């Protein structure tokens, strides 16, 4: 049986793949800290889908989490046995980020998916359902044709990727489900041609900055201390300081420099005529691995101390999440070579190996010395309004996964 037969079988299921992806979009899976009830409902839907496809033995590795109604964060593994015990893991995540500003969704509502011009629109279509469906249908094509792949395919669906993976891949790694001989693909990032294989990442540092002043009537501001103003000034000063102190570029990375972005703001007072006594703002920092994250934090705290002195407000810096970049995956690791070859054979292009902003499941594998690659073909619409997945990318990436299983 040649690979063309498998690829044709994948092509034949194009519409079914699209329908299945849309079914999953309709069941949101948002983390409790973003106001959602976790991934359980979506996981149930996925179990139904997998059973229909013929994955009878599913392994559930749920992590307890009191914050969600089901009290668990579901993680799921579906195996397709191969000729050898060598395992190809394809890791995709169940959770999605919230819709964001609904008014910006002009094509369709975030959880009401729509097909238009060869793209499926909806929250989570690209991040990470496109590749989840691609991995499932790569395995389904092999099943349909009665092909036993060379190596065992383990489709792994995890929770909590968007908020640090404690209840997702970190939990699974803690359960010792993986070993150093595993081949691990995390299709959760890449470019529009599928010509970028990520083997390294930046450190990531998320901060909550709280500014405490004194609430007052807005007509008598001198009775209070406006935490909103101090908070804004501090955020801008911090933004400037970080960019000035860390301008270094490393062309191995994409983008080549460290990034420091003021992102989320928490709502403050309910009325226009109140001087806010509190202000909460957040920063997302992605730092080149050559820099010490603790050193960056120290600089930030020093600036906060200076501001406290200058303004009389109290400023606290809380680390919401911190991931220090692990040792990169060896550029000559087997999975890197296999993927390069698959991309070259099927698409006729040479893939570049490099680093990105980080924050995918692959980092946790690298930390325990298991080589992992991040790869997919995507327009990088993740977390944006009008997020979409190209149907062609979903179908063509499924072929790559099938090739990785067979070659
Ligand atoms: Zn993702």
Structure description:
This protein has 407 residues and is of the alpha/beta class. The chain has helices at 3-12, 14-25, 40-53, 125-144, 169-174, 227-245, 293-311, 334-347, 362-367, 391-406; strands spanning 58-60, 63-64, 72-73, 76-80, 87-93, 114-116, 119-121, 152-158, 183-186, 196-201, 203-212, 216-217, 253-254, 259-265, 274-275, 278-287, 314-323, 352-356, 372-374, 388-390. Strands 1-4-8-5-9-19 form a 6-stranded mixed sheet. A hairpin with a 2-residue loop joins strand 6 and strand 7 (119-121). Helix 1 packs antiparallel against helix 10 (391-406). 45% of the residues are buried. Zinc ion (ZN) binds at residues 93, 127-128, 161, 188, 382.
């Amino acid at each position: 049986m040649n690979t063309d037969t498998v690829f044709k079988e994948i092509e034949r299921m194009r519409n079914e793949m699209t329908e299945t992806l849309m079914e999953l979009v309709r069941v949101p899976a948002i983390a409790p800290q973003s106001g959602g009830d976790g991934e359980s409902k979506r996981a149930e839907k996925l179990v139904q889908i997998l059973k229909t496809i013929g994955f009878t033995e599913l392994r559930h590795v749920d992590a307890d989490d009191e914050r969600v109604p089901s009290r668990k964060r579901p993680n799921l593994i579906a195996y397709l046995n191969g000729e050898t015990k060598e395992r190809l893991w394809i890791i995709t995540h169940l959770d999605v980020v919230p819709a964001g500003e609904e008014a910006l969704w002009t094509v369709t509502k975030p959880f009401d998916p729509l097909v238009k011009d060869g793209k499926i629109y909806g929250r989570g279509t690209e991040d990470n359902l496109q590749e989840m469906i691609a991995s499932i249908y790569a395995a389904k094509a092999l099943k349909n044709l009665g092909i036993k792949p060379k190596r065992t395919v383990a489709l792994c669906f995890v929770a909590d990727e968007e908020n640090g993976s404690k209840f997702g891949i970190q939990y699974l790694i803690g359960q010792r489900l993986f070993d150093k001989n595993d081949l691990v693909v995390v299709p959760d990032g890449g470019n529009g041609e599928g010509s970028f294989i990520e083997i390294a990442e930046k450190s990531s540092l998320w901060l909550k900055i709280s500014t405490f002043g004194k609430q007052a009537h807005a007509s008598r501001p001198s009775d209070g201390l406006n935490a909103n103003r101090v908070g804004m000034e501090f955020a801008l000063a911090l933004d400037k300081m970080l960019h000035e102190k860390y301008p270094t570029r490393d062309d191995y990375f994409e983008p080549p420099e460290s990034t420091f972005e003021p992102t989320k703001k928490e709502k403050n007072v309910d009325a226009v005529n109140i001087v806010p006594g509190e202000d909460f703002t957040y920063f997302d920092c992605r730092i080149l691995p050559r820099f010490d994250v603790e050193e960056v934090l120290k600089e930030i705290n020093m600036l906060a101390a200076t501001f406290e002195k200058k303004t009389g407000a109290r400023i606290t810096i809380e680390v919401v999440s911190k991931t220090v970049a692990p040792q990169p995956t060896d550029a000559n690791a087997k999975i890197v070579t296999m993927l390069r070859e698959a991309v070259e054979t099927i698409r006729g292009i040479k893939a570049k190996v490099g680093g990105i902003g980080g924050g995918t499941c692959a980092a946790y594998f690298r930390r325990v010395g298991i080589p992992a690659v991040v790869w997919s073909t995507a327009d990088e619409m993740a977390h944006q309004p009008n997020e979409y997945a190209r149907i062609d990318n979903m179908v063509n990436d499924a072929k790559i996964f099938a090739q990785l299983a067979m070659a």
